[in-house]
Amino acid sequence: MIQEFKDFIAKGNVMDMAVGIIVGAAFTAIVTSLVGDLINPIIGLITGGIDFSNKYAVLAGEVPAGASLAAARDAGASVFAYGSFIMAVINFLIIAFVVFMLVKMVNRVKSAAEKPDDVAPAVPTGPSELDVLLEIRDSLKK
Prior knowledge:
By secondary structure, this protein is mainly alpha-helical. It has one domain: Non-ribosomal Peptide Synthetase Peptidyl Carrier Protein, Chain A (Orthogonal Bundle). It has five helices and two strands. The protein has a two-stranded antiparallel sheet. The longest helix is centred in the N-terminal third of the chain and has 35 residues, at about 10-45. The radius of gyration is 33 Å and the shape is elongated. The N and C termini lie far apart (about 75 Å).
């Protein structure tokens, strides 16, 4: 049973998946920084400085006017955090686009690597062995 487990782990698919998960976790940090540090400020600038992540509607409970989403939750109010949802959708779309571009680039590199180099024109190598043998036979008949 231990040998079967070793064989399972040693398969290429399992190792590829493990590497993919590790790289994906590192890639998540990059995309999170891209969204939080670069994209969200641009969206805020376009929308006049509105920060969607702090937008919510109070469903039940008392919340002081102008309180942040965290303060409203800390106060025990039931809130409908539509701003967080909007930001999650925006983050998803950005991540999906970045992953799409990454896969497209990898596929382009992979197809270029698999594409054979310019094939050199066939150089005539002379008569085949059969041609030579037939010529010898014909010469001997004479």
